[in-house]
Amino acid sequence: MKPYAYGVDIGGTTIKVGLFGADGGLLERWELPTGRVGAQILPNLAQWLLGREIPMEALEGIGVGVPGPVLSDGTVNRCVNLGWGVVPVARNLSDLLGGVPVQVLNDANAAVLGELWQGAGRGRENLVLATLGTGIGGGIVVGGKILSGAHGAGGEIGHIQVNPRELEYCHCGKRGCLEQYASATGILRLAKAQGFNAGGSGTAKEVLDAAKVGDPVAQSVVTEAGSWLGLALSYVACVADPELILLGGGVSKAGEVILAPVRAQYRASVFHGAAETEFALAALGNDAGMYGAVKGILEPE
To answer: Which of 139, 211, 274, 289 could bond 108 through an S-S bridge, CB–CB 3.0 to 4.6 Å?
Structure first.
């Protein structure tokens, strides 16, 4: 095996890049601006990688996580947040880098794989990760294997319809998606609807922080957001029956203030056979996607 590999997590705002050793240790990490979304993302990334001190010949490969469905050949089937339609990411990036092997995963699948490998899910065989950021992603592991599905859409829990009476549209084109309530943008939407006055720059963190110190409106908002998430996870549990559910992403940093309503609604809604599923916070934070993306390079199945 060659001495190095890169794990890359491409988001709508930043691209996180980790240089890993052959033993899976993270040697160095960087965050790059994604820049203008669209066709220039991969060429810009390739140019940056080619400018590093590590020669391409020393790489075992590059694992990439992207925010959208991924087919088995590394083709991305629409990434709205990146301005991509159907893009053969694995082939295109490999060509730009002179033939270096590239593997591509959905970003939330990469994150749950990272947690399974070196994070809070280590030693588990059946788990679910909900990543709560600008949107909501999900990763599902059953019997130690990622559940990606026939079309790469397995784990897209952010687009479970939890409220069929919703009048506003989600960016996916549906109405009543979980993402409209429990993501950072969803929490802000609920806060606006309930008349919460953050008195700051207007972020989900302000709502969550206010809930922690007892603001009644903020607490109502967070309880509603957590309840929608707990309901959606109860649906997931009826299919996947996880032993552990992890919350990751920026919203999860609020800790018990968001975990408590999620857990309560989950227990109230779930089929009794899955009622004892454990809940915990993800351990790798924003690095989970890099770890999961590179695992398939360093430890191919």
So the answer is: 139
Q: How far apart are CA 127 and CA 262, in angstroms?
A: 16
| Predicted TM-score of the model (pTM) | 0.87
**Under 8 Å between Cβ of 54 and 19:** yes
| Structural domains for the chain | 4-110 (3.30.420.40), 123-283 (3.30.420.40)
State the average pLDDT for the chain. Answer: 93
Within 13 A of 105's CA, how many CA atoms are on the CB side?
33
Which residues make Cβ contacts (< 8 Å) with residue 148, sequence separation at least 6?
70, 105, 106, 109, 154, 155
Find the range with the poorest average confidence among 19-33, 50-64, 136-150, 255-269: 136-150
CA distance 297 to 275: 36
| pLDDT tens-digit map of 142-188 | 999 999 888 888 898 999 999 999 999 998 899 999 999 999 999 99
Q: Which of the 8 DSSP states describes residue 291?
A: H
From 31, 65, 51, select the one nearest 97 (Cα to Cα): 51
Residue pair 18/63 in contact (Cβ under 8 Å)? The answer is: no
Contact 61, 4 (CB under 8 A): no
10 Å CB burial of residue 235 (0-12, 13-18, 19+) is middle
